[in-house]
Design goal:
This protein is of the alpha/beta class. It has an eight-stranded mixed beta sheet with strand order 1-2-3-4-5-6-7-8, with helices on one face. Strand 2, helix 1 and strand 3 form a beta-alpha-beta unit. Bound molecules: iron/sulfur cluster (SF4).
Length: about 240
């Protein structure tokens, strides 16, 4: 199958999307949330106007860079919303590169299957704020909190899959209380990263004029969460 719907972007070489690796990045369309600060808003709907890329061409481009690369990142949008994700990952496995999946964690069962079938090697889960606040703030499904808790629990009990959690520190969406709630939720996790928010593609009027937190605030968040996780860091500062 050469064209599967929803491969909307491809980046041949990235140094920042897969920790410690040089990776190609595959972008899939669709998402089950509507974050007001979505950095890839063009990928959210079918009407984004982006052409589908051919899977064989994506794999060909990866193979041509094979000597440079040691990983592939599958991102979105939200990859677990993609109907042919399993097929796509199996196809990418033919390159024998290590595969990282970026997810919002709202499809716990799908992630469980991907981990069980060893179709991914590394999972990065975005935890946007206290899970119970998702439906009101992020237009997420009503069972969002339950799904995230299941995703976290599933990763903690899956062996052989590396994973990290990360939070983009959007003012108003992420407070000290939220950091504490997230830290308690992911307690014992191997890695947690706090990312600086960059107000570039903001869609919500309330967020448009809100500047990012200063560095000191992120450092305070980092100290609050540090006791709960094995490794913690700041990104995009
Ligand atoms: S979960 Fe990610 S892709 Fe989906 S709306 Fe939020 S930021 Fe955008």
């Amino acid at each position: 199958m050469n064209v599967i719907q929803g491969i909307k972007g491809f980046l041949g070489t990235s140094l920042v999307d897969f920790p410690g690796r040089v990776a190609a990045v595959v972008f899939l369309s669709g998402c089950n949330m509507h974050c007001p600060f979505c950095h890839n808003a063009l990928l959210l709907g079918e009407e984004g106007g982006l052409e589908d890329l051919r899977l064989d061409e994506v794999i060909g481009a990866i193979n041509r860079r094979r000597k440079l690369l040691d990983g592939i990142v599958v991102t979105g949008g939200e990859p677990t919303c993609h109907a042919q994700l399993t097929y796509l990952l199996r196809s990418l496995r033919t390159t024998q590169l290590t595969i990282k999946l970026d997810t919002n964690g709202l499809r716990a069962n799908i992630l469980k299957v991907l981990c069980k079938e060893r179709l991914v090697d590394y999972v990065a889960v975005d935890i946007k704020t206290t899970p119970e606040r998702y439906p009101a703030l992020l237009q997420a499904p009503p069972d969002a909190a339950e799904q995230i808790r299941e995703t976290v629990a599933g990763l903690k009990t899956t062996s052989g899959i590396h994973y990290e959690f990360r939070t983009t520190c959007v003012p108003g969406l992420v407070t000290e209380q939220d950091i504490m709630a997230i830290a308690r939720l992911i307690e014992g996790a191997p890695a947690y990263y706090l990312q600086q928010y960059m107000p570039i593609h903001v869609t919500h009027p309330d967020l448009k004029d809100r500047p990012p937190y200063p560095r000191e605030v992120l450092e305070r968040f980092q100290e609050l969460a540090r006791p709960f996780v094995r490794e913690i860091g700041l990104r995009n500062l």
